[in-house]
Amino acid sequence: EWSPQDFYANTHVPDPSTVANLGDCHLPFVLFPFQARTVAWMLKREGVQYAGGRLADVAQPTSPLFHRAVDALGTPCYISDVLSQICITPPLFDMRGGILAEEMGLGKTVELISLIRAHAQPPNMLDNGHLTSCGATLIVVPSHILHQWTNELKAHDPGLRVFTYTGVQKWGDREPREMAEYDVVITTYNTISREVHFTQELPTRVLRRAPVNKPMRSPLVEVSWWRVCLDEAQMVESGVSGAAKVAQQIPRVNSWVVSGTPIQKDARDLIGLLPFLQSAHSMKTWKKISRPTYKRLVAQIALRHTKELVRDEIALPPQTRVVVTLPFSPVDQQNYNDHAEVMARECQLEGESTDSEKMRVWLRRLRQACLHPQLIDGTMVRKRNPGQLLGVDQVLQSMVDQNEASIRSEQRALILSRVRQGHVLAYAKSVPDRAPQALRRYQEALKSAQELVKECRDELAAVAGAGVSSEADGEVSEDELDKAAKGPEAEALRRRAGARRELRSLLEVEHVCLFFVATAYFQLKTEKEALAAGESPTSELETLETAYYDRAQAVRTEILRGSRARVNNVMTKVKASFSPEIPIVPELPDVDGIENRRIVDAFFELRDLLNAQADALQEIRQKVVEILLQPLVDNDVTETTGEEYESSTKTQDDLYVYELWHRALIAQRQATLIGQRNTLVNNEVKDAARMAKDGTGPNPELMRKAAERLAALQPNDQASLRGVVTEARSLITQLEWKRDGGAARAAAELALTEQLLKELQDITSHQMKHFGELEKAHDLFRTATNVRLDYYRQLQGISDTVAPYKESMDDKLDKVALVDLERKRAAAEAQLATLYGKRRYLRHLQAETDVDCGICQSELTDGVISVCGHQFCRECAGQWFARSRRCPMCKARIKKRDLRPVSHNQPRELQVKEVAPSGITTAAVGPVGISAATLREIQAVELPRTYSTKIDAIARHILWLRQHDPGAKSVVFSQFTPFLDLLGMAFASLGIEFTSIKNKNGTSMIDEFLANPAVEAFLLPAQSNASGLNLVVATHVFLCEPLINPAIEMQAIARVHRIGQRRATTVYTYLIADSVEEAVYEVAVGRRREHV
């Protein structure tokens, strides 16, 4: 298989003993010897070298794509597996440029500037066909280092003429040849990726008419560049991105790829860059390359120095890499264990095969669990607390709440499985005493349900406080939660709402049990065999049946009380707001004239239409209100039939048609009054009418009638009352002109028309005022409809829970179903036992009390907790339960699965390893690189609030640096950007000044970190593509988690360990002991060795 070493082991390394000859370049800065050798090599790759103080051409080398062979006749030949060619003479290699793959921090920018200064375009360079020859060097860089590049160019060679290209839109209609006025043109990958559609060749066909506007073309492809350089080229190594496509199309003489990590995964990553270096060959061609050809190619076109190779020349301060292994805090350990258990269950780790996709998802979740519980994808802790950082106490409370919810869920499942066992027996004809047996199981389930309901009522009373009802109604509204979202009452309101939801859920279970107990008594009453055997008299059974049905009714009433109250509240509003009278449009006084006769006639037509609409609105409103004010089914005197939701369907269909009819009439009245058409409503009516014509949709017959009547009341498209007013205004203006011109009749006509206008305005104002009330009434109708529908939906849901188990009785007992239910019941009991043990442990963590072993009476640090709540040392428990299966404290029977690991006040000592750059450990476990005293000091730093094991450790370390290394700056790196957001919140609360690449407004904050001495930390996400960033002001790098991709890790470290660094640097990799991070780190070490 291909590996990164196929590239790194074959790159060209100039002989250190060689003295580079750069002639008289007049460089404004001094190069290190290795940099001078690199520049000399780059000149050769561009076909020149210095000889006698002047540039001279270098003979082209032979192509590495060909290897020597002998044909069948014994004649020497040259074969290329990449190009599928064979030659008699050795072909030359015409690729000008190459790959500058210096390790990060060795001054690739300086080397490139030296090349620009040392090898300018010859003055006699001819234009490339229709393209203007441009002697500038085009440099494409990541956006975040654009400013850094311009500063470097200005600092190292102020004489260079530099232009920053920001896109074809801002370039405008300037001539592309203006690019030739500069020495360097710099742009970004984001900019050129947006120009992918402005680089295509224009069609050459002859059009009948010349285009009016010439299509816009990017100036980057309108000139032939002397040199094009892709800095941090790993960003386009795929070769298929928009930026890569544009880069390949830019005309150029010399092509350079600059990257400290051109290989991210394996050596074939380079294939995506080769089409840029040798544009004559496509990606498909390069993919055929063999390993021997690849090695020859890399040796010829790529150069790489490492810091290790040139350390004697650059005297770079030493860098220490330290791996800090942290033990989980008890809360984080419990959270991690919970997710690990779920992962093992979902991924079937104990089975023969596992789902690799699920494993990848869970690997990510477990890695997130090592950082902060709130970070884990898909958890309720994350969903319920967006945008805020939870402390350890809040995380622990969330874990307690989640465990309680799991307990309630299993309890409900256990009760309902008992009910279903009763169903299986009740429906078995072959069981002679099926009714008594079913009744016994229903009663057992009822007893358990009532106990849980009592517990839940007590919890609700405790949460809600004194004087607050412990019933299931009184639901907390969304408005209340929104108002208290940031206030001190927010948590109390949410807990109260949660407790009421839990009570309502348990009441539904109690209702099921009560209903089927009553049903069992009904079955007993109707079975003559049971009476013959000496059972209770029929009257007594009937009394019991009625009593349990009444109790079920009472529970159902409590469940629905909140919904019923909302319906009644809206119904009261409907009654109060309903006004049967809709004002009609009155007659006009005698204002007829000759000139305004047409306007008066138009008004009369509109008046008749508006009054007809008013009559129709009054009629339909009455229908809607009658339906909305109908009493609810299942009140205290109405017995449920199990078909409540279906029985309301007919009424609901009628209500839908009447509401649409009402809304359409309002839309028609709006169009008649002001001329504004409601296209949405009109289209909805058309669709409903079309469905009704086909016999589908709600109440087709009524809908057809509505469509017919609506068509008769539809106003003319051009007619409206506002239009009539406008015509009257226009006529008044005309009459004023005529009056002023001396026309005698015009004055009389003007007086009549002015009076007409005043009447029209009063009528319009009055109608529009009432029109707003119509819209408000319709909104209220819609709200009333929704709350009634929600009530019936809840009622139907309750009815579904007591639906018949089967359509008909079973001839024989369904033993398979009975066994399956028993198995599920046992599984639920086992799961409950585990959850009860977890509950006791979590409550103990909340109490933070010391615990002694129940056997040896010594203080407990690492042990187990039983389902009965007693705790023992792990060693004591192992010896005791090897001989006995009963708890030594309470004698309860204990199974092995009932024991859960716990830890209390366990010494949390950090483990430290110092590692070499290759990732090989150079020292044993112990305080290496950081002394034991320093470790104790860091651990002793007090925090006002704790968040998670990782966040606390990093925060303590940076606060310790503030005290012992004032002014020190740190770079904190993580591949989980949301974790850096949480870390930033923690830093803000702890008073640690920090910045990131960009703030919330998208403004770059790099200069703030470099220049502001108060800023202590720079949060650097892996997704920011931080390659090339110069952060030598920092001396500490914190890797929040092990990084599997070594290229990303090396890029992160190289932000501080580079030429220009004057102080020793330290890299801290934080790991969690006994977690997935340790395995990830071992994988990362193996991959890092392949890169070094």
Describe this structure as you would to a colleague.
Residues 471-490 are annotated as: Disordered. Keywords: ATP-binding, Hydrolase, Metal-binding, Nucleotide-binding, Zinc, Zinc-finger. This protein has 1092 residues and is an alpha/beta fold. 50% of the residues lie in helices and 10% in strands. It contains 35 helices and 22 strands. The strands form five sheets. A seven-stranded parallel sheet has the order 8-9-7-10-11-6-12. It is flat, with a radius of gyration of 42 Å.
| End-to-end CA span | 18 Å
Helical fraction equals 40-55%
How does the overall form come out from the CA principal axes?
A: flat
Could you report the average pLDDT, rounded to the nearest whole number? 83
Helical/strand content category: alpha/beta
- Strand sequence of the main sheet, in spatial order? 8-9-7-10-11-6-12
- Overall number of strands: 22
Q: Tell me the number of structural domains.
A: 5
- CATH homologous superfamily placement of the largest domain: Tandem AAA-ATPase domain
Determine the CATH topology of the largest domain: Rossmann fold
Secondary structure tally, helices: 35
CATH class bucket of the largest domain: Alpha Beta
Please describe the biggest sheet, giving its number of strands, its sense, and whether it closes into a barrel.
Answer: 7 strands, parallel
The radius of gyration computed from the alpha-carbon positions, rounded to a whole number of angstroms, is: 42 Å
Q: Per CATH, which architecture of the largest domain?
A: 3-Layer(aba) Sandwich
Q: Quote the beta fraction.
A: 5-15%
Residue runs with pLDDT of under 50 for 5 or more positions: 918-928
Region (Disordered): 471-490
Organism: Trichodelitschia bisporula
Keywords: ATP-binding, Hydrolase, Metal-binding, Nucleotide-binding, Zinc, Zinc-finger
Biased composition (Acidic residues): 472-481
